[in-house]
Amino acid sequence: MHLRLLTLSIRSVYLALMVLLTAACAVEVTPAIPTSTPTPVPTPTRTPEPEVDAFTMNQRLARSVNLGNALEAPNEGEWGVTLKEEFFQVIHQKGFTAVRLPVRWSTHALKEAPYTIDPEFFKRVDWAVEQAFANNLAIVVNMHHYEEMALDPTGHQARYIAIWEQIAEHYQSYPNALLFEPINEPNGLLNAKHWNDLIAVVLPVIRTTNPTRNIVIGPAEWNGVRALDELTLPPDDRHIIVTFHYYNPFQFTHQGAEWVQGAESWLGTEWKGSSAEKQVLQYDFKQVEQWATDSQRPIFMGEFGAYSKADMNSRVRWTAFMAREAEARNFSWSYWEFCSGFGLYDLTTSKWREELVQALLPPQ
Ligand code: BGC
Question: Which of 54, 81, 194, 327 is the most exposed, having the fewest neighbouring CB atoms within 10 Å of its CB?
Fold first, then answer.
């Protein structure tokens, strides 16, 4: 028999059986058969949220931690960290309000136009974003270590913009608790002038699909305080949180850091918290505060931390002082970082380094 006819006759038998069965059931179960067409279950969509202003959103970033050395390694895992569900859970349980997620998009996108981002990598970032939300954490997704941008910003501009266009489109319907950060620590040839020019190009691209999402933007020179005065932002875009990074005194925070030339010779540098030492930091923080008041922008200290080769007492003193000084000025902060060389959390024992955590989150 022709295959289609066979199928039809099987279907007729099936239908007849169903009618009989339904009739039989109707005797016992009331009400029996729906008389109108059931309404299909709608596909879940995210309800659009009211926009959140940048100052309010910055409070969600109040006490954050960087999930460093995972997705900004050339490939996740190559720098010793593979993200796990439990990270997000313990971070939330400990009292942090948000995470900053460094992401090296540049090694996961085509080298040539249209510079498509690897869908598998996108899924991995989606997973991380969902983990943050599931644990009531806001999340800042940045672009980290696009190193070519520091060497040849003009040559890489089209690719950089195309990558952001894809990220922005992909997450356009995500909740407000997802923030974008267009680049980590612009440096090298991506100087203040070049970076301002690039902001003027990338921001409108992101705004096409994300008109009111809060975006984290920092100054040139590795997000350094000194470059804040040179940062140009569109005055009428009020959904911007301004970030800076702080690692001074550098010879203390980066002593023994393998990636910093000469850092071996700084080993043993302490931070005692003398008034002279404190004044240096306070002077810088006051400058940021003044800039924030003048420009009416909220401030996020997106990275600060002292490497594990410094002595623990100094690290604790410095970290606590930094956090309190930031809080006193309404800067939100994000410690660098969760479980690697600066880490708050020991991966080998799955335990927090309580002294450091207490420095950040003292008992109320
Ligand atoms: C870099 C890290 C580095 C940290 C402290 C971050 O911005 O991405 O690789 O460990 O700064 O130097």
Answer: 327
